[in-house]
Records
---
Amino acid sequence: MLKEAEIRTFVDGTTNYFEVSGRQPATVGSPYLVTDGRPGTYEYTGVIGISGARKGIVYFTAPRGMLTVLLMRMQETDCSEETILDLVGEVANTISGNARRDFGKSFVISVPTVVAHNPEKVTPPHARCYVIPINWRAHSAKLVVCLE
Amino acid sequence: MMDTSAQQSKKLMIVDDSNIIRRRIERSQQIDRLEVVGAAANGRDAVDLFRRTQPDVVTMDLTMPEMDGIECVEKLVAINPKVLILVVSALADKATAVEAIEKGANGFLCKPFTDRQLNDALEELLRDA
């Protein structure tokens, strides 16, 4: 179960990522709880396994359109499938790693696993997940936090 | 007049499992003062590359497969105590930054970063060179 302040950590991390890397702040909607273990995905998903004091996963999922624009804002000219997958993993890694500012060193993050076009491969470890909706430059994405 | 810029440039090795981050570092303004001698996507490859290319400066991610960045920093410093290492990582807790510095890193840049922050961090590192 996540506390409100803990959810705030991920909201702030998401906002900061888009503001710094995308050079334009994202609008983050009200986080909501999903209890059926199916928080949903877009085309591309970067999944970070969490171990240590907390256990579960954090994933960032977004459509190709958003990721392509984000790459362009980062002055990246290669928008191949490989680079899109690299980016979605890097976003998940950065937001999860930044969470250690509040969670501390015992919040251990894995290297990212990336999934494309196959939502069945993204399986939260338990039914209760918090979803943070993200809107950026007419695109929608989400950060899903599923921690014990 | 003889061009001495090549002689003055420092050799840089970039260690990060993200191609995007590696290319961003290669695009840094400070890159004029650096010669990129190689890039590695994990700590193990970085140690091998370090031995072969003997860079003066290293940018180092921390969360990587095979061997993490903290262990890699320790190994690189054991090989060459004079190497300058800038850790570039998303791990934002103070304890990790302190540990990296204790193992021998010279600076810490937290992801995400702007081009200016990267430039400033590399400039500060090169000031010590």
---
Amino acid sequence: MIRVRNLEKTFAGLKGEVRALCGVSFEVRKGELFTLLGPSGCGKTTTLRCIAGLEQPAGGEISIDDRIVSSAENGIFIAPEKRRIGMVFQSYAIWPHMTVFQNVAYPLAGQDRVADRVMAILERLSLGHVADRLAPNLSGGQQQRVALARALVAQPEVLLLDEPLSNLDAKLREQMRFELRSLQESFQITTVYVTHDQEEALALSDCVGLMHEGTLLEVGAPRNLYLHPEHRVTAAFLGAANFIAASVERHREPSGEALAVTTPLGIFVARASAEWQPSLPAELFFRPEYVDLLDKDAIRDGPNYGAGTVERVTFLGNSADVIIRSGEVLVKARAHPARLPTVGRKVTFFVAPDHCILFPAERAG
Amino acid sequence: MTDAPVPGGRMTVAVDSRNPVVRIRTRPQFSTRSLALILTTGIVSYLVLVPLVMLLYASVKSTEDKLPFESRVTTVGNYVAVFTSPAMLPIFLDTFIFTVGSLALGVPAAILLAWLLERTAIPARAWIASLILVPMTIPSLLSAIAWIQLLDPRIGLVNVIFRGATRSSSDTGPFDIYTLTGMCFVQGLRLVPSAYLMIAASFRAMDPSLEEQSAMAGQNVARTTLRVTLPIMRPALLAALIYFIIVVIESFDIPGLLGFSARIRVLSTAIYWATHSEVGLPDYGLASALGAIILVVALILMWIYRRLTLHQERFATVTGKGYRPRQVNLGPWTMPATVFCWVYVFMAVLLPFAMLVWTSMQPFYAPPSAESLRRATLEGYLNIWQDGSVVRALSNTLVLALVTSVATILLALLVSWFVVRQRPTGASMANYLATVSFLPQCVPSIVIGLALIFVYVRFPIPIYGTLWIIALAMTTRYLAFSSRATTASLIQVHGELEEASQMAGAPWMRTLRRITMPLLAPAMINVFLWVAVHAMQELSMALMLYTPDTVVISTMIWSMWQNGRTADASVLGVVLILLSALLLLGAQAIASRRSARHS
């Protein structure tokens, strides 16, 4: 179990200090895979390196299994080599002057049954046959597995993964994603995973934390985060999104959580996000795949319906992107490849209120 | 939820119960690295700054008949003497002529060679390119000796042959090596290999499409070279020029030997003769004032050099493309160009070495003839070891080379580790280390030797008169080159390779030993050899600091030569060259074995 509380980190930049982390707090339960997701420069790798001990935080506290490993306020900082953490680096950092066996045996220096333990983990990762090879003579996927074997061989309490799949080609990445997950589950090891790839984060994690400009914006299970984001940044980062200018009619009282809003597409019932406040200009959010394309003759009854002309269709293989023009507004939708709408056709569409969320409009500039 | 709930109560308990344990466990690891940083910074500062401060201190002490420490009088008299004494003017003038003359010969020759070998299709380029570098293994002391044997006005081989061919009745001339021209000639020849290396590198770094563009615009080779190639390379050439000004000003061996009998003195030899006067007492005040002046000049030049090489990045024309530039066909000029290359190789490599070998096989000096050929013998190589001091010189040289190179490489490794890896957290400390460790680059060897006399002659650390003081001087001098070289290599080693070792539970020292050092091994071997070969051949620091007990091969050759033991000096010279060559060949073997293992 990992607890991070109010983590602060500053770097010396060209123009004074740069705040890389501004009070990051989260908790990873035992055996859970927690993903820090965000664009480059958001502080996710810095957070990971603080947990590892490779960076010394300027403030806040980190504890692993109730052992405090770093506390700026109490002057505690345990060196990385004393933290019993396994880590896989983005570059894999396989030592080129050692064989696969020597690489993996390295963390076991001075322990018993080194050969047995190394061979066991190598076999588990199907690396037994390359044990005597020098690291540079391995394929990308094999290097990745050597890095994993080396991180796991000493049975650490925590596993840290820094964009471990980013150097692999697309096919291999997908395969390793499942292998990584099944490995993590069978070892029951508490894991923190850093990535900028939202698909990877959603597919792998028990819990995803979205980072933005040095803060941890939002934490949740992948499905929750994707379907019910509380922040505009989360909504925009996790997949494709429509944002349509919307105004809340004062005379329409919110019924429960739901609000009725007026948009150029018509009236929509939506849920207000945590960020939204009545005083702010608002935007309606929904994802393209929740836009139901209907026949033009379909009955339009009540809110959450829109209509327009198909402006462009982009075939993507397993699906198709459809752009619908409705007056000045363009709406992104997704269609099944077997039911492609024709360009120029008039269509009606429906977005279920459950998938409509109201965010404050992005500030201009 | 932006904040994960953290139960504060439990956390407090954790702090209280774990805190003491944690603190104790943190300390030992933390201090190894900090201790190393403190030690490295301390040693580097001590090695570099203390001698320089002592030199400046000595230069403002009145030292009539005294060592600088015994004098209580602070004075600018030494500087006044330097600038007003009529004996000094020729020294400055000769230094100037010597520098300009050597560069005027060496640098254009190097540019021409670099252009011919990098850009034209002259035959046997690979051979010429490797032969050009051979003089780097021959100490300049021995170049000077070889050229004396060739161009001594009375007995020099070239003069003897020339007089024979022209049936001259004179018994001297026509060439005289003991002149400023002779000094410039030998020094200029010696500059070529390293200047060639530097200039050829910038030819190689230049994007050939820039030249091809000019060719496409209808310009011929000569115009392309003059209008495009050389202007683009101007900053690099200027930087090389300034670098070699420092090299010539620092040069001691050649002006020391060639200018000895004719009493032609340059700044570096003037410092030596001021402290090793044949007639009077050593004048340390004068020597240190001269040293301070030479130091300031070198510092200014080095500052300009650094500025230029920083600038150079704006002109950076390096591209990752691996294709070779179009090679110019010289047509009718191929023959003269080839002849030029081989004449250089003959004059700089074959002729001096052959001359040394010849002299070493003669019981007494005689120009090659049927008669002297009959006297040729290898006995000199056997007999020389009967002189106990020669054996001592050899073992001293080997010990010195080993100690200096080990000390230098370890210090350089630590310096570059802190410079590269500490920069994010301790930028000012890293910059300090980088600057101070580079400083010796512009402190001439003779000045380091002089300064160390001041530091240790009365210092509580009793190393004056031992081999250690020479090793200390050399370590200081070679730290600049070595730490720059290891820094450049360490930058290539991805930091995550070391971090992975930390995460695998290895403390700092183990990471350094098991990961960093093996990964840097190729660079470390190269630096080790560079230092070892330089330490074996170095003359001026050894000459300032040696005693009869700590004689080394280079000082032995120097004194043999001064005492007219020509044959012995040549024997030892050949031994020294062979030792250097052996070391370099051994390194090649190690390097190729390593690369075979890794492929």
---
Amino acid sequence: MQSLSATSAAGVLLDLSGAAILLLSFACLGSKLFNRYLAYYGAQSVVLSFAAGVAAYAFGSIELWILAVATLAIKGIGIPVSARRLLIQRLELKRDAALSTGLSTSLIAGGALTAFAYLVTRPQLLPHGLVAAAVVPLSTAVILLGGLSMVVRRHTVAQLIGWLIVENGVFLGAITLVATFPFIVEAGIFLDLVAGVLIMVVFVSGLTRRLASASAGELRELQG
Amino acid sequence: MIALMILAAAGPLTGTLAAGCGARARPAGWAAAAGALVSLVCAVWLLTAQLHRTPLRGWGGYLYLDSLSCFFVLTVAAVTLLASVGSVAYLSAEQDAGRLSSFQVRLYYIFFGLFAALMLAALETGNLGLLFVLIEASTLASAALVGLEARASSLEAAWKYVIISSFGVTIALAGTLFLYYSASGLHLAVEYRLAWPYLFSHAHALAPGSLRLAFMLAVVGYGTKVGLAPMHTWLPDAHAEAPSPASAMLSAALLNTGMYAIIRFLAITHARLGDAFPRAVLLAFGFLSIVIGVLFMIRRGNFKRLFAYSSVEHMGIIAVALGFGGLLGLYGALLQTLNHAIAKAVLFLTSGDVALRYKTREAAGVHGMLTAVPVTGGALLLGSFAVLGSPPFGVFLSELTIVRAGFATSSPVFPLLLLALLAVAFVAFARTTTGMVTGAPPGEPGDEPTPYGGRAARLAAAAPLGVGLVALLVLGLWIPAGLDTVIRHCVAVMS
């Protein structure tokens, strides 16, 4: 099976991008202001598209180039910019509606989850020496951190971005071994993502109109 | 045959097309029902034609149909037919009462058709990546149905549903990724990288550590869609807030589609890692779901939530049956899937009639249905006894099979626990529904007995209930030879 070795130039670059993506997920987790949170997510997606570009170059795969460009355009630029417009201009929201735990608690939990990701995925996966073996724990950690951001953030839009971080983690894992999933699958995942964001935005604006603020803390009508 | 497969999946799109072209509620509803009928006929045809042949493949493995997928296609198509006939009556009544605008009705049919078609397509693919794509897409289509009425509570339910399910399914995608990694020792051609039949036949060469992780992630991820506890939290809200025929689709079709995905992962895991590991995982999630479902059924409140928690319980029972495994366990699981789907479709459709007639979704506000609305009341009473597993209905037979499987394959503690929980569920559920059907009806004796105007609408409301109950009765008395053969073939596919 076709895969990159960890010592090749592309392998080193992918490894570094993986580490940068993990750090940016921590930055998202730790940022209090909404615009920073969005900016870190955007930066993470830009690094991800760079990683996809590296893989595309290494494998000589046109499909992966397309995905890299789509990632840059939609996840790196489109979503952060439009989310910013929606939140800060239309909903007049400057700050995040706070975390439900303390900042340090969530960072410590994030550290624990990263350690857990390494514990679970390190020993059993791929033969050592492949770049995938190094990147898979990173991508697992990004998935867990995205989930954590969804849990600790109160605002619905912040939860949406948390889901997109999870998606970034999965995508990072998918590009490292063999070129990628079959193109039709990757394209389908991308379409789902775009449709998902659109439908979620419709719900968020509906909720904002009804509840004055779309903080998930106010969603408490349905219980039991 | 390939054309037939495509037709089976594309059938429900007739409703989408009709509504997209601007048809009114009734014509769009009948178009949706006709499309569902086409799907059902195709499913039966495929099932009979394919029974003793090798699985159908097409488009480089993206299309794949064996007995197991055929069985689920049949279930989903049958539920879609019941729900779309029910929609004809329900949606026009809602529109006449001024609760839905004609635009909302059109949106309903557009997304209803998409939702059904995407689920059917998900069942007909052999590529696990595409399976994820289609299941996630069906989540989005059904989220639009949940939020359709655009009240604050339905938007809240829709938000909860879409965010929790999308996250869950993304976890399942990570599981798919790990499955893909576990196959890194194999030298696979591009088109086989995520192909289920290929991975299944080479299961012995998969890396066990990675596969174990893949199975766990798939159970948690797709289990979110199935409504296994503790990932079930979206389920009661979405079922309670969606229009009733859409609730029927969620409970009887969507949950089964999720379970189908878990079964595909289970088959591969079972072939590589043996009995013990998948059994432990499925029994844990299954029993937790049954306990949570039963506990919340004791509370008396919104009857649609009651039915939803009963779905959590039943999905738990199916997971437990899959965990028991063996011929009996798998047979019971599939039979239970079919029975539960029909029974729950009937119950949710009656819940729509009740909500229209009594203008409340609280069980405490509903009395005397047998006197006031004898047809709906009778269907609710029979349907709830059917879903609770009393003889002579089908669920009794399948639950008995599952308990027998438990005694045959594991320590007697599990089947005894299952029986005890079923007894509690019976009391909790029947207490509420019998309270709804008996007693004196509220209001003047001269009240309109039915919320539906016109004979066609009344017929459309009553027909799915009658057909569903008759099917349940037949399945309880006698399993047709054809169905028995099909289920045995499905079990052979899984092991």
